[in-house]
Structure of DUF6175 family protein:
Amino acid sequence: MKLQIIKIAGLLIFMSLGFAMQGISQAKKPTLMVVPSDVWCNMHGFMTTFDNQGTKEKVPDYKRAFQESSDLIAVVAKINGLMAKRGFPLKNMESVIKSLAGESAEDAMLTSKGGAGVSESPVDKLKKVAKADIIIQLTWDVLTSGPKKSVRYVLQGLDSYTDKQVATAEGTGNPSFTAETAVLLEEAVVDKMDNFSASLQTYFDDLFANGREITIRIKKFDSWSGDLEKEYGGKELNEIIDDWMKANTLKGRFSTTDATENMMFFEQVRIPLYDASGNAIDARGFTRKLQKFLSSPPYAITNKLMTKGLGQATIVLGDK
């Protein structure tokens, strides 16, 4: 009898450990996208300009880079492979660019839009379509010493919502006779990838527990007769918006950086990573709820929602 009890207890412990390990193996991982850095694109002549409300800005021409650089395709594929082996879901940048072109969205990417001071760069547009949690920005160059070559590289993990750097790896590989850049890069980075991956996961786990960060701006059109000090039921509109933020942010976490009768600016606004259906929530999805709240009675304020990338949203009150 005792032997049977011991066997049952052992089986229960084994099953518990199995379920625990299964939970660990199924832990949610961030979605990644590997992107050549601005520095690399500039070094190799893959830049273009776009008109940001009258100001000319240089941005990477990713489409041309993937069309003309076989090294870029091979290197991105190699890093994608290394991250996939560690269980990270990946968005392939080349495929995202093709999707944009297929939808005739690229022309819109290169055209500045007017409106209340919000404009999206082509890079912001790309991030929004890809919806990757973290961008792995890659810079590398090939060093030559006689017949041998080596790769000097920098990998930066950037939160695609805030552009904060959350992980980094850099170094120079050992000289080799191989002529393939992708192989040289793999040899250089392979011993750094576990620590790099662990840093990405640690950061994502914190986001899962405490929410991701976005910024929200509230502005008003000059044509609107009201302002943020207008009272509704004995409360100023700025107080009403502040109360909404307290009730709807994750754990009530946000910072009111600035507030006047004409504008409010919220930073470090913590929102859940996913909605009830398991879909990722970005600044637009979260702020749309505030937009609808303000346009509904008793406020009934006509307003316009605009976004920049995944992590910035602006509501302009008083018109569309």
Observations:
- Residues 2-25 form the longest helix (24 residues).
- The first strand starts at residue 32 and ends at 36.
- Confidence is low (pLDDT under 50) at residues 5-26, 104-118.
